[in-house]
Write a structure and sequence with these properties.
The protein is of the alpha+beta class and about 110 residues long. The protein is about 20% helix and about 25% strand. It has a 5-stranded mixed sheet with strand order 1-2-3-5-4, with helices on both faces.
Length: about 110
Amino acid sequence: MTQGPVRAGSAVARVDRRVAVPGTGLPVVEYRPDPTTGVPVLLIHENRGLVRSMHDIASALASHGHPVVMPDLLGRVGGTDPQGSPDTTTRVIPTPTHVDDLVAVYD
């Protein structure tokens, strides 16, 4: 998924791509700033997944120079519900699976 620039702060941030983590298929969204001046951030969403507010936070961080990686920890059960339904939450996936997914993203 590629979107146009998002302006805030001193940098221009883009959602560069939506990729899958090799070996897990877990979807990941990347925000890349231009220029990159800050430390990379692994942004972990709340229980309802990658809702709009998570994208807003990622965009704000990237607009200040931080590359941001956001895994969709609900990817194993179809991904984040675009409507933010409380029926699809991280509770349906065992905690050790989340840990394994985050380690795979980090690697």
